[in-house]
DNA sequence: GCTCTGGAAATATGC
DNA sequence: AGGCATATTTCCAGA
């Protein structure tokens, strides 16, 4: 195994060499490489791989958008990996895969070649792994050894190390994020990989670890490190940060300090201390907890149990890891980045090589030492028990049992409702929240207009508490997925009333919050801040394909996994409205939070009220229709009623569509522009055929505030609805679909437009198509619809079979059978899921559709509606008229869409092309290797 | 003494 | 290469 791994690694490295952009390619290549090696283990999904490549490559169109790029690669990868994992029993093998660091869950390979990792994966969690940096230090993992490399400069990534160390406690957590994986406890993915997978546990994958992890958390700790590895690592891992050490980011000066960033605000100041503290997550963790203590104690305990539920996730996690885009764990590894600034630091930092065992090294060191204890501490906070366990990877796996391996990957789209259950965001977060850097202290918890966001699970009548998971997701046009540049940050302190604990999964930090029956399964989210990771750090990650620049919108994504008597687990997800996280953007960029209508006959002429922020008298509202490939098909400026312009609202006249005789709805976008580069994200709008009854989907509005006034803003506050009808009412149809459960049938049925008011249906659908919908659906989960579909669609992976089994399919999204870890492994549902997930998410709607690989592939898809798919694909592009009715539904989407995409898209395309070329060539080369 | 914030200087990046 | 504009990240300082 090792060898294989090594090989893979090497390959990766080589890839790594490639420019960051190439990552995508790298992935592919790497994947391929991995595959090969893996093959052994894995059985290679090579095929898949190949597929993936092709996809990306092949379909320029798809590819065009970065979506594609990313996605495709990812997908393939993931699938592969996963499979591999599943298949492989070997822990090692599996681990290797995962670990591969390179591979992120996302599948992204770690391209960064610089590092050289030698290790047996098994042990190491990716996290740790990491990276060496440019220097190529080699780290050994040895047992522990994950070791990694250090990066000389690199400092690595932020991730880990930086994070934790850094700043304030809260920040720390952040750190964790990055490194989170490591962090262990909970890193589902990562750890899993490391140990988990390996772990004997049942299914290779995950079973073990992942899921459980969290709680297991305890184990986790260990997990991280993988058994083999030293606990230290593990410790580190937990914090995740620890890992960082290595990483500390290169750049930042702090880094070395680690984190400076981590540290907090100023690196300098503390340095030594800081670092340790901060860096070492240990401190952090401990700290946090303390603060949180109250919470902790209470919550933790209670939940813990719940956590188990997650367990499933193990598998899932694994899968996710694979699938997810992004994130890969590998990541961390990458240290590479070097900022100019960093350099110096880095050197110091980087240098740290971690000894195998210790690896964690400096940071780690600091941390490490602490870690263990820290870990414990932290954990204590959370779970107490878990924490303790920490280290041995294996152990965790054990604990995890409960967990169903199959918790859905973080980039899977899940419905907000299924059967009687409905997960709703009762109170949406504010549209702006200045995220803090590792180098800063926490900037506090995300707030709502009044108080804090509130999430509630309706329809759950059991007495057993559940765990609400929260992570930071993307808010762009693509399918919802963990945001690579932002991590949720645990806030603790006197002002925090909600207990929480962190878990890492696939490079994504997840905040777990107890959902208690005594509180009506309602949770006030006052414990979640947002950490911004440096773009350079993330972009250097092996598998990362997203660009951080101007990618500053996020959404809070909530998930809950409900174990069913039949052994299955219902997973629900609800995402918030988009949240702008940059300081500058918050101050300058116009933001459309709500729109009074999202569809209208092609004749236009009606006034539409937009509510949001930063509107100016000179603001312009531009309607645009883009082709799938991003080309502008039509663009026109709407007439703004300048007399009514307010900073938080603007009234414009809907311009007539270029073709007033459309026979089917046409999806377009519009944005508010305050200047050359000051444009809001795209908002959706659908032109309807003259005779078609209008369907308003209203945006979700959670933002009430804004819209409030508004005229007839439709904003429909989901929550409101939800409140009304706790159960399904609102729920997204999609969700329903997805869920094994009868899901929210109602909605589905309704969907069509049917209920304008509810329009959920629409949303659902649309979502599918568009990720954009998000905003709208946010509450529910914009994602849902889309998600689901994608997944189903994924069908592309028919293999998985989901298609075949509706249940499964549903399950995929929603349900997971605890019982059968196999799923995960097996092609079965899980198997694919991941795949799907991957593909879909990553790929983005577009790809998916396209992915088509098998159109036929998924029955589901079809079932659901090819249209959707199609639409989605188109949509992805931006507007695609094609979307149609469904799209209409999408209206909901209204809200969020990033503008950037356009430009980026092209960029991506170009890059992609290059990459592809390079890859091709490189691949051949690698092959040799 | 610490966290949370707002503001802005210092850097980076892109054109 | 240099300059400018914009975006990101790091620092400061006040509450």
UniProtKB/TrEMBL annotation:
<dbReference type="Pfam" id="PF16179">
    <property type="entry name" value="RHD_dimer"/>
</dbReference>
<dbReference type="GO" id="GO:0005737">
    <property type="term" value="C:cytoplasm"/>
</dbReference>
<feature type="region of interest" description="Disordered">
    <location>
        <begin position="208"/>
        <end position="304"/>
    </location>
</feature>
<feature type="region of interest" description="Disordered">
    <location>
        <begin position="781"/>
        <end position="893"/>
    </location>
</feature>
<feature type="compositionally biased region" description="Low complexity">
    <location>
        <begin position="839"/>
        <end position="855"/>
    </location>
</feature>
<feature type="compositionally biased region" description="Low complexity">
    <location>
        <begin position="245"/>
        <end position="257"/>
    </location>
</feature>
<feature type="compositionally biased region" description="Polar residues">
    <location>
        <begin position="270"/>
        <end position="284"/>
    </location>
</feature>
<keyword id="KW-0539">Nucleus</keyword>
<feature type="compositionally biased region" description="Low complexity">
    <location>
        <begin position="865"/>
        <end position="882"/>
    </location>
</feature>
<dbReference type="InterPro" id="IPR014756">
    <property type="entry name" value="Ig_E-set"/>
</dbReference>
<feature type="compositionally biased region" description="Low complexity">
    <location>
        <begin position="219"/>
        <end position="231"/>
    </location>
</feature>
<dbReference type="GO" id="GO:0000981">
    <property type="term" value="F:DNA-binding transcription factor activity, RNA polymerase II-specific"/>
</dbReference>
<keyword id="KW-0238">DNA-binding</keyword>
<keyword id="KW-0597">Phosphoprotein</keyword>
<dbReference type="InterPro" id="IPR013783">
    <property type="entry name" value="Ig-like_fold"/>
</dbReference>
<dbReference type="GO" id="GO:0033173">
    <property type="term" value="P:calcineurin-NFAT signaling cascade"/>
</dbReference>
<keyword id="KW-0963">Cytoplasm</keyword>
<dbReference type="InterPro" id="IPR037059">
    <property type="entry name" value="RHD_DNA_bind_dom_sf"/>
</dbReference>
<dbReference type="GO" id="GO:0000978">
    <property type="term" value="F:RNA polymerase II cis-regulatory region sequence-specific DNA binding"/>
</dbReference>
<feature type="domain" description="RHD">
    <location>
        <begin position="405"/>
        <end position="586"/>
    </location>
</feature>
<dbReference type="InterPro" id="IPR011539">
    <property type="entry name" value="RHD_DNA_bind_dom"/>
</dbReference>
<dbReference type="GO" id="GO:0005667">
    <property type="term" value="C:transcription regulator complex"/>
</dbReference>
<keyword id="KW-0677">Repeat</keyword>
<dbReference type="InterPro" id="IPR008967">
    <property type="entry name" value="p53-like_TF_DNA-bd_sf"/>
</dbReference>
<dbReference type="GO" id="GO:0007399">
    <property type="term" value="P:nervous system development"/>
</dbReference>
<dbReference type="Pfam" id="PF00554">
    <property type="entry name" value="RHD_DNA_bind"/>
</dbReference>
<keyword id="KW-0804">Transcription</keyword>
<dbReference type="InterPro" id="IPR032397">
    <property type="entry name" value="RHD_dimer"/>
</dbReference>
<dbReference type="InterPro" id="IPR008366">
    <property type="entry name" value="NFAT"/>
</dbReference>
<dbReference type="InterPro" id="IPR002909">
    <property type="entry name" value="IPT_dom"/>
</dbReference>
<dbReference type="GO" id="GO:0005634">
    <property type="term" value="C:nucleus"/>
</dbReference>
<keyword id="KW-0805">Transcription regulation</keyword>
<protein>
    <submittedName>
        <fullName>Nuclear factor of activated T-cells, cytoplasmic 1-like isoform X1</fullName>
    </submittedName>
</protein>
<feature type="compositionally biased region" description="Low complexity">
    <location>
        <begin position="808"/>
        <end position="820"/>
    </location>
</feature>
């Amino acid at each position: 195994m090792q060898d294989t791994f090594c090989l893979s690694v090497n390959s990766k490295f080589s890839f790594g060499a490639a420019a960051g952009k190439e990552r995508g390619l790298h992935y592919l290549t790497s994947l391929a490489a991995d595959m090969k090696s893996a093959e052994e283990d894995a059985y290679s999904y090579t095929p898949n791989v190949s597929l993936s490549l092709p996809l990306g490559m092949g379909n320029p169109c798809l590819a065009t958008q970065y979506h594609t790029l990313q996605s495709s690669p990812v997908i393939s990868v993931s699938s592969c990996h996963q499979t591999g994992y599943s298949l492989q029993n070997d822990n090692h093998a599996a681990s290797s895969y995962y670990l591969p660091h390179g591979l992120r869950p996302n599948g992204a390979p770690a391209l960064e070649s610089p590092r050289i990792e030698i290790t047996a994966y098994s042990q190491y969690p990716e996290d740790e792994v990491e990276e060496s940096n440019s220097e190529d230090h080699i780290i050994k993992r040895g047992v522990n050894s994950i070791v990694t490399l250090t990066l000389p400069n690199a400092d690595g990534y932020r991730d880990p190390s930086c994070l934790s160390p850094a700043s304030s406690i809260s920040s720390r957590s952040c750190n964790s994020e990055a490194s989170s994986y490591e962090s262990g406890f909970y890193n589902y993915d990562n750890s899993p990989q490391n140990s988990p997978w390996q772990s004997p546990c049942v299914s290779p994958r995950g079973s073990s670890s992942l899921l459980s992890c969290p709680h297991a958390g305890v184990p986790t700790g260990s997990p991280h490190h993988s058994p083999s590895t030293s606990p230290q690592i593990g410790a580190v891992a937990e914090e995740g940060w620890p890992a960082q050490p290595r990483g500390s980011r290169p750049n930042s000066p702090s880094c070395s300090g680690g984190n400076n960033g981590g540290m907090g605000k100023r690196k300098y100041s503390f340095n030594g201390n800081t670092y340790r503290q901060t860096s070492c997550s240990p401190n952090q963790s401990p700290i946090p907890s303390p603060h949180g203590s109250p919470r902790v104690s209470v919550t933790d305990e209670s939940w813990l149990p719940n956590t188990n539920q997650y367990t499933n996730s193990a598998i899932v996690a694994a899968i996710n890891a694979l699938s997810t885009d992004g994130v890969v764990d590998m990541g961390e590894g990458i240290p590479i980045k070097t900022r100019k600034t960093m350099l110096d630091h880095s050197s110091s930092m980087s240098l740290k090589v971690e000894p195998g065992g210790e690896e964690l090294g400096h940071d780690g060191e600091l941390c490490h030492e602490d870690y263990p204890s820290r870990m414990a501490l932290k954990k204590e906070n959370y779970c107490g028990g878990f924490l303790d366990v920490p280290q041995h990877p294996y152990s965790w796996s054990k604990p995890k049992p409960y967990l169903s391996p199959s918790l859905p990957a973080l980039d899977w789209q899940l419905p907000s409702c299924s059967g009687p259950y409905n997960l709703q965001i009762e109170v949406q977060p504010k549209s702006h929240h200045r995220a803090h850097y590792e180098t800063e202290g926490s900037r506090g918890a995300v707030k709502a207009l009044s108080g804090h966001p509130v999430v509630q699970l309706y329809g759950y009548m059991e007495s057993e508490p559940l765990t609400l998971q929260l992570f930071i997701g993307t808010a762009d046009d693509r399918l919802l997925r963990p945001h690579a540049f932002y991590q949720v940050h645990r806030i603790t302190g006197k002002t925090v009333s909600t207990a929480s604990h962190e878990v890492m999964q696939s490079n994504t930090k997840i905040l777990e919050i107890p959902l208690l029956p005594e509180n009506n399964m309602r949770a006030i989210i006052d414990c979640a801040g947002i950490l911004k990771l440096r773009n350079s750090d993330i972009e250097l990650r092996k598998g990362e394909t997203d660009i951080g620049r101007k990618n500053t919108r996020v959404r809070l994504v909530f998930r809950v996994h409900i174990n069913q008597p039949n052994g299955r687990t219902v997973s629900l997800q609800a995402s918030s409205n988009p949240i702008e996280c940059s300081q500058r953007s918050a101050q300058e960029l116009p933001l459309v939070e709500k729109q009074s209508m999202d569809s209208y006959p092609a004749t236009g002429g009606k006034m539409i009220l937009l509510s949001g922020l930063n509107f100016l008298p000179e603001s312009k509202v531009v309607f645009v229709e883009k082709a799938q490939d991003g080309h502008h098909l039509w663009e026109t400026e709407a007439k703004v009623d300048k007399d009514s312009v307010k900073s938080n609202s603007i009234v414009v006249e809907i311009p007539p569509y270029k073709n007033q005789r459309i026979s089917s709805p046409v999806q377009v976008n519009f944005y508010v522009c305050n200047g050359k580069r000051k444009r809001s994200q795209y908002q959706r709008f659908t032109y309807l055929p003259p005779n078609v009854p209008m369907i308003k989907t209203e945006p979700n509005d959670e933002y009430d505030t804004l819209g409030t006034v508004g005229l007839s803003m439709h904003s429909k506050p989901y929550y409101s609805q939800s409140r009304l009808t706790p159960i399904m009412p609102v729920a997204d149809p999609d969700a329903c679909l997805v869920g094994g459960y009868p899901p929210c049938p109602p909605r589905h049925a309704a969907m069509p437009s049917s209920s304008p008011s509810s329009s959920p249906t629409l949303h659902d659908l649309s979502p599918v198509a568009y990720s954009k919908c998000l905003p709208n659906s946010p509450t529910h989960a914009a994602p849902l619809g889309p998600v689901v579909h994608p997944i189903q669609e994924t069908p592309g992976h028919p293999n998985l079979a989901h298609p075949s089994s509706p249940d499964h399919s549903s399950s995929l999204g929603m349900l997971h059978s605890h019982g059968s870890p196999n799923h995960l492994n097996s092609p079965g549902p899980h198997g694919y899921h991941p795949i799907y997930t991957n593909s879909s998410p990553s790929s983005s709607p577009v790809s998916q559709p396209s992915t088509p690989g098998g159109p036929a592939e998924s029955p589901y898809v079809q079932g659901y509606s090819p249209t959707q798919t199609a639409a989605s694909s188109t949509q992805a592009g931006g507007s695609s008229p094609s979307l149609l009715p469904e799209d209409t539904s999408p209206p909901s989407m209204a809200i969020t869409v990033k503008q950037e995409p356009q430009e980026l898209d092209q960029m991506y395309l170009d890059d992609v092309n290059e990459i592809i070329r390079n890859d091709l060539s490189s691949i051949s080369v690698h092959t040799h290797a």
